[in-house]
Design brief:
Elements: E1 4-9, E2 20-25, E3 28-34, E4 37-44, H1 49-60, E5 69-77, E6 80-87, H2 89-94, H3 96-100, H4 115-124, H5 136-144, H6 151-156, E7 160-165, E8 171-177, H7 180-193, E9 202-205, H8 211-219, E10 224-227, H9 233-241, E11 245-249, E12 255-259
Parallel strand pairs: 3-6, 9-10, 10-11
Antiparallel strand pairs: 1-2, 3-4, 5-6, 7-8, 7-9, 11-12
Length: about 260
């Protein structure tokens, strides 16, 4: 299934035109079923469904390791895609509250707000260690070159992207989606299933850095997050509490660094 669909568009105003065809980014539901039960429905761009589901499960705390997943499969039902996740017996016994979804609110696609969010996430996610130091110029170069990793955006002008690099600025994975959360889940999920997530050091995002993206990054143990847009205030508070480095491109060069600057030189 293509990540875009072609539609006719009529130009009005401006220079005279006779109409054209635009490639518009696709947006369709993805249902995630866990242990045979509905868990979430996500609006996303088709593609990378298995990696997307794996990254989503990691971000939500449903799994911690690839071995927590017994089976992970995709089935097509007409125009609705469904991913089924079966957990190992040991893992399912560890997270009964999440599986029951009593008064469920997705931890990473929507949330509460303020100090309670920070307190709750601090209890669930350990702060990151200071193991990596990155060259600032190299990190900024990765940020500048993000558009080259976005073939869907080049067609549609509407896709978000997430790209993950190791400490030597080697690209590990990249993904696009109509949703910025989904793009991150896909990029992380691919590395998670390939057991290469431990190599990841730098995350580059096309969007602003929200607290949900910080939470997903923390679950994936990504210490440095850089984006084209500035973070939200809550994102900086959470990143500071979890010892994560948040930065964006400076207006006149360099970078604005909002937390844990020790990882950039």
């Amino acid at each position: 299934m293509k990540p875009y669909k072609t539609h006719k568009v009529q130009q009005m105003g401006g220079a005279p035109g006779t109409g054209a065809h635009h490639d518009l980014i696709a947006e369709e539901p993805l249902a995630i079923r866990i242990q045979g039960q509905p868990y979430a429905v996500i609006m996303r761009t088709p593609g990378d469904e298995i990696a997307h589901a794996a990254g989503f499960c990691l971000a939500e705390g449903i799994v911690d390791e690839p071995d927590d997943i017994k089976t992970l499969g995709l089935c097509d039902e007409g125009e609705t895609n469904v991913v089924t996740v079966t957990l190992s017996s040991a893992r399912s016994r560890q997270i009964p509250e999440l599986l029951q979804r009593r008064s469920y609110i997705s931890q990473t696609s929507c949330g509460l707000c303020g100090k309670q969010v920070i307190r709750d996430l601090q209890q669930a996610i350990a702060p990151l260690e200071n193991r990596s130091v990155l060259d600032l110029a190299g990190a900024l170069d990765c940020l500048t070159r993000l558009s080259a990793r976005q073939p869907v955006r080049q067609r549609t002008r509407a896709a978000h992207a997430a790209a993950v690099y190791d400490g030597e600025f080697r690209l590990l994975s990249a993904a696009e989606d109509v949703g910025r959360h989904n793009a991150l889940d896909k990029a992380v999920g691919r590395l998670f299933l390939d057991r290469r997530l431990a190599q990841a050091v730098l995350l580059i995002l096309s969007s602003r850095i929200s607290y949900e993206l910080v939470q997903k990054s923390a679950r994936a143990r990504l210490p440095v997050v850089m984006a084209k847009s500035r973070p939200t205030a809550l994102a900086v508070e959470l990143a500071s509490a979890l010892n994560m480095t948040l930065a964006c491109k400076g207006r006149t060069g360099g970078a604005y660094v909002y937390s844990a600057p020790q990882r950039l030189k």
